[in-house]
Design a protein that fits this description.
- The chain contains one helix and eight strands.
- The chain has a single domain, classed as Beta Barrel (Porin), CATH 2.40.160.
- Helix content is 11%, strand content 61%.
- An eight-stranded antiparallel barrel has the order 1-2-3-4-5-6-7-8.
- The chain starts with a helix and ends with a strand.
Length: 198
C-alpha cells in the first residue's frame, strides 16, 4: 500500500511538471528548472548525526507577473549517518513533489538581476536502507516547508542561473515495534539552479 501511494505521489508530480511545460499559451512565460542541492543537516535523526546530503529538484515555473512566479515539480534528496559515530551506515532517501512561489524584488532601482524570496511546500516520504534489518523502513507521506533567498542571474538567451540559500523542514512518521516514531529532517541548503525559458 505504501509503495503504490508513493508512486502515485511521483506520478502527480510529473503530471504537474508536464502541464506547466506543455500548456504554453501566447503571452505567458513558462520555464523549466533543474536544481542540484547540498544539504547541511541542523539536527540529528533517530539520535544520529547526518553527513552533508545531496539532492536534486526538477520543476516547471510559471511567471504570474514580473514580480511573482509559481512552481511545481519533483524532488529527490539523500542523506546518510555519520560513520565516525556509528559503524553501521544508514542511508535515507527522500522522494516527493514540491510546489510554491517566488517573489522577486530589487534593492536599488537600476539593479539588473532580481533577488527573490521562496516559500514552498513539499509532500514526500523517506525510505531508509541499512545492513541492519530493523533500520530498513519507509515513512508515511508528510507535508514539509521550504523558505529561501536567492538571485536570478540572466545569462545567454533563454538561460538563467539562480543561486539560493534555503531552509527546509519536514517530519515523517514511521511505524516501529514500540509505536510511532518521528523522523525530522531540518536542513540549510546551498543550491544553484539552471533555468530555461520556453
Amino acid at each position: 500500500m505504501k509503495i503504490s501511494r508513493h508512486r502515485l505521489v511521483i506520478k502527480i508530480g510529473f503530471l504537474i511538471l508536464c502541464s506547466l511545460t506543455v500548456l504554453k499559451t501566447y503571452g505567458q512565460q513558462y520555464n523549466v528548472e533543474l536544481r542540484p542541492t547540498l544539504h547541511f543537516p541542523t539536527r540529528t535523526v533517530l539520535d544520529q548525526n547526518l553527513r552533508i546530503g545531496n539532492g536534486i529538484e526538477l520543476a516547471g515555473v510559471y511567471n504570474v507577473s514580473n514580480r511573482t512566479d509559481v512552481y511545481a515539480g519533483v524532488l529527490w534528496n539523500r542523506f546518510d549517518t555519520d560513520e565516525s559515530r556509528n559503524e553501521e551506515d544508514i542511508e535515507y532517501t527522500q522522494k516527493g513533489v514540491v510546489l510554491g512561489a517566488l517573489f522577486n524584488f530589487k534593492i536599488i532601482e537600476k539593479q539588473k538581476h532580481l533577488f527573490y524570496v521562496r516559500t514552498g511546500l513539499t509532500y514526500s516520504n523517506v525510505a531508509s536502507s541499512s545492513v541492519i534489518e530493523t533500520a530498513n523502513f519507509e515513512s508515511k507521506n508528510a507535508i514539509g516547508t521550504q523558505v529561501g533567498l536567492g538571485m536570478s542571474i540572466k545569462s545567454l538567451g533563454h538561460w538563467s542561473i539562480l543561486p539560493e540559500l534555503r531552509y527546509s523542514s519536514s517530519s515523517h512518521r514511521i511505524d516501529v515495534t514500540s509505536g510511532n516514531d518521528l523522523l525530522s529532517f531540518n536542513t540549510i541548503a546551498i543550491t544553484v539552479a539552471i533555468r530555461r525559458s520556453l
